[in-house]
């Protein structure tokens, strides 16, 4: 994901001390099996880096981050005078430092990869409905290197619509990486247009269950509060006056000593909407440490994510015109946590 940039004038053959045969594609002393398109670089360690650790020297000599240097060392792509190097090794002046730099890839490119845990609930010529597990993003994004729904569908041979941005073609709704449950993806262009319009006009029934700390008062209500990016954060959101219109309806299904199980209907679909609105009520989703949940309770329930699940999705089918509804059961981590809450005295 990190872009690798060389220092000006440090191309192979231009820098002082370049070794013969160090052009891209020539890899003396480096083990075979490296990624196609990788670049081999070789430089003599200058006096100024004497005694520095290898990762520190790599960062300065090749213009990469120390974390990228450590990654290359772990992968066995670094050698000192023909011998595999470790991060803690110290540099000696005149030593030949060889590095294999992997090709720079597009962070938004879709990687076809089957993902354990994704279940296809329904598929026809227009749509595919899936049950998304936790830890899977819907589509590629900057900073995300894990599995994606679109990558799974591509690997499974499911053709989806080409409408929308390249990395999220066919996507008309999204679930957070840390949120599991049912969602729909469009296979045909007409389906994409119809469902995109239906989501825009709030004609989709999106039902979630959330286990929140404490007991909301009133037990049933609506949160109508605009949401925007939190100050000084690129990934958190907050209720703020200049945010986007956001409406969440909730109803208490079960009230227990430490937490309440809510059924939530989304009228709008902002990023982190339920999590932000519940936190604004001072009843964050259990396990949602990002938005103020109690870490002690999360540990007691063995939760490593927010207790939030998309249980039902209902809409008018874009081809048949009939109302359809799909459901997803609680995954085991959420089910176990709920049972522990129910048994608490």
UniProtKB/TrEMBL annotation:
<dbReference type="InterPro" id="IPR006224">
    <property type="entry name" value="PsdUridine_synth_RluA-like_CS"/>
</dbReference>
<protein>
    <recommendedName>
        <fullName>Pseudouridine synthase</fullName>
        <ecNumber>5.4.99.-</ecNumber>
    </recommendedName>
</protein>
<dbReference type="InterPro" id="IPR006225">
    <property type="entry name" value="PsdUridine_synth_RluC/D"/>
</dbReference>
<dbReference type="InterPro" id="IPR020103">
    <property type="entry name" value="PsdUridine_synth_cat_dom_sf"/>
</dbReference>
<dbReference type="InterPro" id="IPR036986">
    <property type="entry name" value="S4_RNA-bd_sf"/>
</dbReference>
<keyword id="KW-0694">RNA-binding</keyword>
<dbReference type="InterPro" id="IPR006145">
    <property type="entry name" value="PsdUridine_synth_RsuA/RluA"/>
</dbReference>
<comment type="function">
    <text>Responsible for synthesis of pseudouridine from uracil.</text>
</comment>
<dbReference type="GO" id="GO:0120159">
    <property type="term" value="F:rRNA pseudouridine synthase activity"/>
</dbReference>
<dbReference type="GO" id="GO:0003723">
    <property type="term" value="F:RNA binding"/>
</dbReference>
<dbReference type="InterPro" id="IPR050188">
    <property type="entry name" value="RluA_PseudoU_synthase"/>
</dbReference>
<dbReference type="InterPro" id="IPR002942">
    <property type="entry name" value="S4_RNA-bd"/>
</dbReference>
<keyword id="KW-0413">Isomerase</keyword>
<feature type="region of interest" description="Disordered">
    <location>
        <begin position="1"/>
        <end position="34"/>
    </location>
</feature>
<feature type="active site">
    <location>
        <position position="176"/>
    </location>
</feature>
<feature type="domain" description="RNA-binding S4">
    <location>
        <begin position="52"/>
        <end position="109"/>
    </location>
</feature>
<dbReference type="GO" id="GO:0000455">
    <property type="term" value="P:enzyme-directed rRNA pseudouridine synthesis"/>
</dbReference>
<dbReference type="Pfam" id="PF00849">
    <property type="entry name" value="PseudoU_synth_2"/>
</dbReference>
<comment type="similarity">
    <text>Belongs to the pseudouridine synthase RluA family.</text>
</comment>
<dbReference type="Pfam" id="PF01479">
    <property type="entry name" value="S4"/>
</dbReference>
């Amino acid at each position: 994901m990190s872009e690798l940039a060389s220092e000006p004038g440090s191309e192979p053959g231009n820098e002082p001390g370049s070794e013969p045969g160090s052009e891209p594609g020539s890899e003396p002393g480096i083990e075979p099996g490296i990624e196609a398109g990788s670049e081999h670089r070789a430089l003599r360690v200058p006096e100024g880096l004497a005694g520095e650790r290898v990762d520190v020297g790599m960062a300065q000599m090749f213009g990469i981050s120390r974390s990228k240097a450590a990654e290359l060392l772990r992968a066995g792509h670094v050698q000192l005078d023909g011998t595999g190097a470790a991060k803690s090794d110290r540099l000696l002046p005149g030593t030949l430092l060889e590095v294999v730099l992997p090709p720079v890839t597009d962070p938004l490119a879709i990687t076809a990869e089957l993902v354990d845990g994704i279940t296809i609930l329904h598929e026809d010529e227009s749509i595919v409905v899936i049950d998304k597990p936790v830890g899977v993003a819907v589509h590629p994004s900057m900073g995300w290197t894990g599995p994606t729904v679109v990558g799974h569908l591509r690997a499974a041979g499911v053709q989806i619509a080409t409408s929308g941005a390249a990395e999220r073609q066919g996507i008309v709704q999204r679930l957070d990486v840390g949120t599991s449950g049912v969602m729909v993806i469009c296979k045909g262009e007409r389906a994409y247009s119809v469902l995109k319009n239906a989501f825009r006009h709030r004609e989709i029934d999106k039902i979630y269950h959330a286990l929140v700390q404490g007991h909301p008062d009133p037990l049933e209500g609506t949160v109508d509060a605009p949401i925007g990016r939190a100050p000084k954060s690129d990934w958190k959101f907050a209720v703020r006056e200049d945010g986007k219109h956001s409406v969440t309806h909730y109803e208490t299904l079960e009230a227990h000593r430490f937490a309440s199980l809510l059924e939530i209907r989304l009228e709008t679909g902002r990023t982190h909407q339920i999590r932000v609105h519940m936190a604004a009520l001072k009843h964050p989703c259990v396990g949602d440490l990002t938005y103020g949940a109690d870490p002690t309770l999360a540990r007691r329930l063995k939760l490593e994510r927010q207790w939030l699940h998309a249980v039902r999705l209902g809409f008018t089918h874009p081809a048949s015109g009939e109302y359809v509804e799909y459901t997803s059961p609680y995954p085991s981590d959420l089910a176990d946590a709920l049972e522990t809450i129910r048994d608490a005295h």
